[in-house]
Amino acid sequence: MIPPRYRICLAAHFLAVANVTGLMSTPFFIYDHLNGGVAMSGAFGAAQAAAYALVCLISARFVGRLKHGLHAAAFGIVVFGITFAAMPWLNSPWVCGALSTVGVGAMAIVWPALHSWIGGEPDTHVRSRLMGWFNLAWSSGAAIGPIFAGPMYDYYFRLPFFAVVAIGSCIIVVLLTLPHEHAYFAQCGAAAQEPRTADRRGEPYLFAGWSAVLLANLLVGVARSVYPKRVNDLVTQGELRLLFEEVPAAFLNVAPATKYSWLAVILAGSTAVSFLVLGRTSGWRYNLRWLFASQALAGAAFYALGHTSSLLVMMVCMAVAGANLAVCFFASVYYCLSHPEKKHGRAAINEAMVGIGGLLGSAVFGYLAGRYWFSLPFTWTPALVVFVMALQVVLLAYGRRRAERVFVTPVPATCVLTECATTLPLAPDLPAEAVVPEPDAENGPDEPLVIPLPVEVLGSVEEEQPPVPLLLNEGAAAADDPTPPTLAA
Q: End-to-end alpha-carbon separation of the chain, Å?
């Protein structure tokens, strides 16, 4: 049988296929069967993203305490399949919008549970490689999904929604065969038996990473829920060009869903390739410049998306947006999973940033493009990116101050020897200098003994401090005992 760490990657791959198949078919279902436009598709996307973010934030407080988080993931897949299977049989925008919102909201339980299972790997290097394979799995599924979703929709509009149910049923079977993360990783090596500590270097980047995920998914949400209308209009009006030719090729003026599926494949494919590279490199760790460069390129790409009618230019811009999503998401998830006790809750918050970004992108871009003209929000995207980059500098400074408060424990100036075991964080093996000498004539039994203690026994402190005196108040009892007492850890 396939090892569990690869089975969960397989499940993530096909889950992304089902997810993208349903979500990509929804805008065209709105245009063709609900008589809606870019405003309605943007409203659908905004409601879905809001539900996803809300469920992530609510579940972050309790989902990590579940006995088996993958069982909750299976429940979320069931809800997603039922709601999307029912939607194409209805013609009410309100009912269809409610069903799609509930279905996407249920997926907010699924993805954090899968990420948390991966985060159970105690070895940081192995966990980074495993994250790379996991992210490659779901992103490649997101790239493959549109290849089938577009042609299936053009053939029969209900067919993609049937595929969601069939694929989801197979995924549930795979998830139910996986063991609990603690039981599995405890068998993988001796490192799993040792207590795992939090990554202090990654803690300052946590909030900046979340803001980057929000911006990246804002842009990707626009590409998935708002930009299909642009492609649909260009195809139906005969204005889509391969590059800059005056007379377009005949194949560009038919099947708009299939044409947009090509862009969706490029978007997700560049994410998958970037995940593969990030999983095998380490330069992006603890390096905000990677996020800055990626976000700057994405802002320029979205400016071009709003003003071009060339399919090849659109593909290049989608590739840049997908790579930006990979850089921001991979770095943020790495920082979220670096804390063993808070990894599930932080993974849920990270997924909430995915939903909030999609909500803002779909609602704001959809409203502005429908209310004024389509290119307006795309024109101002670079300014938005600059603002978020400035915010990330502030968040990094805040994260550093917060990390200092969390990880640096103040050391008391003095300690009574009889209470040292409970009040002073001493190291388990004390040096010989910590042995208490026998009382002499100058330091009698009625006077307290002052014992110089080296800095290295005081635990983890950032700067050297002068020796701390320990006071022995029971001098008489120590004088009666011929054996020199020692400090117990």
A: 48
Res 404: pLDDT: 76
Q: Which fold has domain 4-407?
A: Growth Hormone; Chain: A; (1.20.1250)
Q: Does position 381 have pLDDT exceeding 90, yes or no?
A: yes
Q: How far apart are CA 31 and CA 104, in angstroms?
A: 20
**Most confident listed range (109-113, 124-128, 162-166, 287-291):** 162-166
Counting every residue, how long is the chain? 489
| φ, ψ for residue 412, nearest 5 deg | -65, 150
**Which of 34-38, 184-188, 205-209 tops mean pLDDT?**
205-209
Please give the model's pTM, rounded to 2 decimal places. 0.66
480 CB-contact burial (10 Å; exposed 0-12 / middle 13-18 / buried 19+): exposed
pLDDT of the residue at 109 = 87
Residue type, 53: A
What are the φ/ψ torsions at residue 341 (nearest 5 degrees)? -85, -25
**Inter-residue contact 271 to 139 (CB < 8 Å):** yes
For residue 477, pLDDT over 60 is answered with: no
Q: What is the Cα gyration radius of the chain?
A: 29
State the helix-helix crossing angle for 227-236 and 206-225, rounded to 10 degrees.
20
pLDDT band at 197 (very low <50, low <70, confident <90, very high): low
Smallest CA-to-CA distance from 351 within 334, 329, 383, 374 is with 329
CB 362 within 8 A of CB 222: yes
427-438 residue pLDDT tens:
444 444 444 445
Give backbone dihedrals phi and psi of 487, rounded to 5 degrees, phi first.
-80, 125
C-alpha to C-alpha distances, 145 to 14, 269, 311, nearest whole angstrom: 9, 11, 20
Q: Start-end ranges of CATH 1.20.1250.20 in the chain?
A: 4-407
